[in-house]
Amino acid sequence: MTTLWVLLPLLAALLAAPASALAGYLRPSLAAPVGATLAALAFGASLWGWGMGGGVIDVAWAPTWEIRFAVAFDGLAALYALLATGIGFAVLVYSSRYLPLHLGHEGRPESDGVGFYFFILLFMGSMVGLAMAQDLILIFVFWDLTAIASYYLIGFDRHDPDARASALMALLVTGVTAVLLLIGALMLHAAYGTFSVPELARMVEPGPLLTVSGLLIAVAGLAKSAQAPLHFWLPRAMAAPTPVSAYLHSAAMVAAGVLLIGRVYPLLQKSEVLLDSFLLFGAASVIVGGFLALTRDVLKQLLAYSTISQYGYVVYMFGLGGKYGVAGASFYVIAHALSKSALFLTAGAVTEATGEDRLSRLGGLRKRMPVLAAASGAAAAGLGAVPLTIGFFKDELLFGAALERGPALAALAVLWAALTLAYIWRFWSGIFLGAPGEGTHGERQLPAALVAPVVVLGALVLVGGILVGPFEALAEAAGKASFASPTPVEPAYHLDARPENLMALAAYGLGALIVLSWPAWSRSALGVSRLGERVGPERIYDLTLRGLNRLSDWAHWAEVRDLRSRVAAILLPAGVLVGAGVLATPSAGAYRVGELRAGEAPLLLALAAAAVASLAATRTRPHVTLALVLSGAGFMLAVVYAFFGAPDVALVAVLVETILTLLFVATLKLIPYEVLHRQAELPLQRPRRKALISLVAAAFAFAVVWGALSQPAAEESVARKLLRLTPEAHAKDAVTAILADFRGLDTLGEITVVALVLLGVATLLGRGGTR
Amino acid sequence: MILAVSLAISAIFGSGVFLLLQRDLLRVVVGIVFVSNSAILFIIAAGLSRGDAPIYPLPEGGLLDAGTSDPLVQAMALTAIVISFSTAALLLGLVYRLYAAHRTVDVEDISEAETREAEALEREEEPEREEEPEGKPAEVELEEETR
After folding, report:
1. What is the average pLDDT across B125-133?
2. With contacts defined as CB-CB under 8 Å, which chain B residues touch A709?
3. What value does the mean pLDDT of chain A take?
């Protein structure tokens, strides 16, 4: 039975994408309802699975590599699976109305939406898989699946160059860091012989190995969660359609990063360095994101920077550690996902109704859209940690965790909470309060399907503010999975002067102060944010990408310019590698002159003749002489083979040399004499350089050959065994026995090559004179 | 003996490399044949024993070192000779085709003609390129300027 409630959410989530694509193939309008139904089903299955207490499935996947298909439905998996499927369902309902309008604006057919649903559901499925995976390789596979899906979703408006560039940026930043995750996993496997996270958690010891591999894995998580300094892809990813932003950038893609950190937290928390680095990156992201959110004018940009800042909190709380930190981080993810997806959907609805996406041109919409204003107000209040919303408790836990670590961190937490309150007030009041903006004169009515998901999510934010129990239980279960021991936290309202309450009051006051004084210093804040764009990490990314492009262009040009550069592109690296190998090999006693037996003088003479004939070929100009010198060198080699005790080889060599000479002369006959003569009369180009290259090549060949031939002979050789077996093959000649019997398959391959060459030559010579 | 064989192999190899670097395609073919020759000689020389031919009846103590030549390397050298001969034949055929197409056996003349052709192709493709702009860096710049 355990198997069932572990597999059911996973299967429902993974099957959603193909099912929706199939339905969309039959009729495009079916894709959304089928996808939403399956998302709801997966949500229900996750809820049921969690209610039944979860379970583990662990089967061998690639046993020789110790990779297992290990999935577990624990608290952490339940939290993220519920978020991915629940908010996924809300976003799909929203998309079913939003996407036809969006495609209509873009002048694209309705069938283009099928791909959208496929990838958003693929994302949901891989997110559920990622939440449940217990094996680092399995985690890596689902991790990359989410990256691929996000690439297509962000670049959904593929005619827009900006959307394509943004999609590439998101893919590169999250994909390249995913490789770090793989490297970290392999390092752990090399040391402990397993990829399983629970097993590793039992085995790892603090030390440099854990710090390095943990840092590699953490960087992958931080990049996915858009933490500074790798945060720049997230605001750019707002080029995606609004439902994608609401989903990927509140509940799914950025959440995957902290999910990974939560999953491997039992390992990471053993290293103080890692926890401190979380504090550092988290704090940097909160400040950068919060500050830039204050300065943004475009709605979705403001929300994107807010997301960076909010996930900064989560990372920061993981860094704080302790039961408040870990359970608080999970609680923060829930509260943030509910509020932020509602706010993104609000932004999309407002833009859809007015055609405006800038705060400076919006305002006073509370009368035209009272329901939306109220629902998104609740969501904004949730993000701003106002009492009676779920958000109040997320800040209560943050303050609690910070207090455990001292007053300095607590003061920082208050400042950040104030910053959050200020920018979210700016967002909500800028849309709904004040005088009507100049961009708000549109008369378009909002479809109910665009408002309903916001209302549901906003209501959940309020419910969580009163009935915090279920959310808290979920966060505690997730915290238990990360912390490896129970994390009882009791978020509740206390009407007394405890430090958390005082800190909250201070945050409200400070937030109000920022809002009121904002006009006075907005100009300088904008200047600072511009400076950040000029010299920030995004600039470094651009420069890197451009440099890589140029390098690739150069390499392409250098390699395929002409035949000689193409040959050089193969020979040069090969030569360098061989040379490095020769230099790296210890040379003491590796070279032997070798004995010279009596009666071997003819062999030496033949060797010298072959070498001289070859050298002479380099000085020969006329082509016919060249052919003769070539055959001379070949026949000399045949003599060498004969003296080596290899009559079979010598015979074949004589035969082959004869035919080759004839072929060469025949080719010369086909080409007019004038062409050959002109060619032979041409002076050598750069003869010294070519001679030098040949000398260097010959020197390397000499070192390698001499070194190889100097190796002592093996005691029991294959040759002796073959020699002994020859009579059993009814042969007298051992070489014949080897070619026709022992290594018959090689000979078959050889014959095939000859036959192919025959066909090739026949084709080359057969087809007319010129093309 | 080892030293002598090594010297001969490297001399043949060096000659082959020198010929490979020429602009005359026929010399390039000869160069490739020489490089193959040096490889075959290396295979033969790598035999663990050197003596009489490995043909029955074997001499007294024929199974011992130095009594009989190593038959395995000979079999491999035979295969190598045939393959290298096939390669040379194919190359000669290609040289003839190149001559038939370009009326020259000079690498540089042929690569010039190739470049001309590639440029002509690119000119034909260009209008299409403008419709579908590729290459991200330019787009980034454009986007930044409009911001």
Report:
1. 53
2. 2, 5-6, 42, 45-46
3. 86
- Tokens 């072929």, residue located: A663
Interchain CB contacts (distance < 8 Å): A and B: 300
Per-residue model confidence (pLDDT) at position A415? 87
Task: Test B9 with A750 for CB contact under 8 angstroms.
Answer: no
Question: Any bridge partners for residue A68, and if so which?
Answer: A60
Nearest CA in chain B to A595: B1
Inside any domain, residue B122:
no
- Name the residue among A663, A746, A771 with its Cβ closest to that of B92: A663
- In angstroms, the separation between the Cα of residue A728 and the nearest Cα of chain B is 12
Helix boundaries (H) for A247-389: 253-263, 265-268, 272-295, 299-320, 322-354, 370-383
Q: Model confidence at A589, in pLDDT bands (50, 70, 90)? A: low
Chain A's closest residue to B113, CA to CA, is: A562
Q: Which residue of A has its CA nearest to B141?
A: A542
Taking the CA of residue B124 and the nearest CA in chain A, the distance in Å comes to 20
pLDDT band at A768 (very low <50, low <70, confident <90, very high): low
Using the Cβ of B91 and the Cβ atoms of chain A, whether some distance falls under 8 Å is answered with no
Would the CB atoms of A717 and B70 count as touching at under 8 Å?
Answer: yes
User: With an 8 Å Cβ cutoff, are B13 and A765 in contact?
Assistant: no
Q: Report residue B56 as tokens.
A: 């029955």
Q: What is the mean pLDDT of residues A148-177?
A: 90
CATH code where residue B20 lies: 1.10.287
Q: Which residues is A56 bridged to in the sheet?
A: A72
What angle (nearest 5°) sits at the alpha carbon of residue A321, between those of residues A315 and A322? 145
- Predicted confidence band at A766 (pLDDT cuts at 50, 70, 90)? confident
**B97 in reach of chain A (CB within 8 A):** yes
Q: Which two tokens stand for residue A617?
A: 């070929």
pTM comes to 0.71
* Beta carbons of B78 and A735 less than 8 Å apart: yes
Report the DSSP beta bridge partners of residue A60.
A68
Partner residue facing A610 (CB), from B8, B96, B100? B8
Of the candidates A644, A710, A765, the beta carbon closest to that of B93 is on A765
Tokens read off for A37: 């139904």
Percent of chain A with pLDDT over 90: 21
Residue A375 CA to residue A345 CA, distance in Å, equals 11
Chain A touched by B12 (CB under 8 Å): yes
What average pLDDT does the segment B104-122 reach? 85
- Asked if A732 and B56 come within 8 Å (Cβ–Cβ), the reply is yes
Nearest-Cα residue of chain A relative to residue B18: A694
Amino acid making up residue A716: E
B34 in a structural domain: yes
**For residue range A509-541, what is the model confidence (pLDDT) as tens digits?**
888 888 888 888 878 888 888 887 777 788 888
The answer to whether residue B88 is domain-embedded is yes
Residue A323 CA to residue A620 CA, distance in Å, equals 86
**pLDDT at residue number A639:** 94
Complex ipTM value = 0.82
pLDDT of residue B144: 44
Say if residue A673 is exposed, middle or buried (CB neighbours under 10 Å; 0-12, 13-18, 19+): exposed
The rounded distance, in Å, linking the Cα atoms of A224 and A367 is 39
Assigned domain for B77 exists? yes
The domain of B25 spans 2-105
Question: Could you give the C-alpha distances from B70 to A733, B41, B61, in angstroms and in order?
Answer: 12, 14, 14
How many domains does one find in chain B? Answer: 1
Q: Which of A165, A617, A659 sits opposite B139 (nearest CB)?
A: A165
Q: What is the pLDDT of residue A514?
A: 84
Cα B91 from Cα B71, distance rounded (Å):
30
| Residue B90 C-alpha, separation from nearest chain A C-alpha, in angstroms | 6
Q: Are A465 and A388 in contact (CB under 8 A)?
A: yes
Closest CA to A649 of B74, B33, B41, B82: B74
Which pLDDT score, from 0 to 100, does residue A361 have?
A: 82
